[in-house]
Amino acid sequence: MLEKPRHLERGDTVATVSLSWGGAGDPEFLWRYEVGKRRLEDVFGLRVVEMEHTLKGSAFLKEHPHLRAQDLHQAFSDPKVKAVFSCIGGDDSIRMLPSINYELLCRNPKIFLGYSDSTVTHLMLTKAGISSYYGPSVLAEFAENLAIHPYTEAWVRKTLFSNKPVGPVAMPSHWTGEYLPWTEQNRTKAKSMSVHEGVEVLQGEGVMEGSLMGGCLEVLEMCIGTEIWPDCTDCLLFLETSEETIPPKRFHSMLNRLFSAGFFDAPRGLLFAKPYQGIYQQEYHAILKKALAEHGLSELPVAANLAFGHNEPMFILPYGAQGHFDCRTGVLSLPEPAVS
Prior knowledge:
The protein is of the alpha/beta class. The protein contains ten helices and 16 strands. The chain has an eight-stranded mixed β-sheet.
């Protein structure tokens, strides 16, 4: 059982951190960071502060993973900070591991929000006994062109600002994976949206229930064999792929790596997100079913096409919280509060 951090309220202080790629501080992207920061302040009433190295830029932070870890420690140990939001993902959080103080994190439970390469930090916090939240980042969602998507905004409020049971997770009516370069000229351009087809049950029957555990496939593979590799026994697993759109053959081999590492040893079910831009969606589904059958899990309940991860908008998944998915209705529900 992971400890649930305290819920957010208007006026609370949130720290932003760059734990992987430091682009938030690069001159060409700083404007976008400022947009995301202002929205957190204006839309949610939060006070946003940066840690010492949050805006030092990608070149500096690449060379100093221990300072990224220092920022994480500073944010968690500061009693004025009530939550820590990731600026963006990347592929380098794993290099913080030698510098992480798990006892410090454990003594100071608070909300951590992020996705993609933030999977590493989520697993660190899992090891420290703290629930964290797989959801939007400052640069990629809070700073989205025109406005934060209302669906994403609603899920931030429902999961992080309320200590009531979360309840059913309705999928958004529309989604997008369109990429528009992060230039100031594009900030007033709207992305094209497509109708969301709803959740697809790939296999299995009945109801799957378990504590939520998972993350981004490519990042989970990096974590195999490390000190933060989680015990997934009796978990309701969630899995998504990144904007790298890995080829189907590579997808299969990465799944096999997760099998060999025990990720699928005793699962209660699997929630699989819509791949980035929908690329390889049917291929991934077929390979996933094939890989599960190869490992004796052809009857494991699997739901696909869910709205978390690298497309927009997104709901938020709380690590360690109970998840409930009914294969008959196609409805995911979170029957307990995400925060205390």
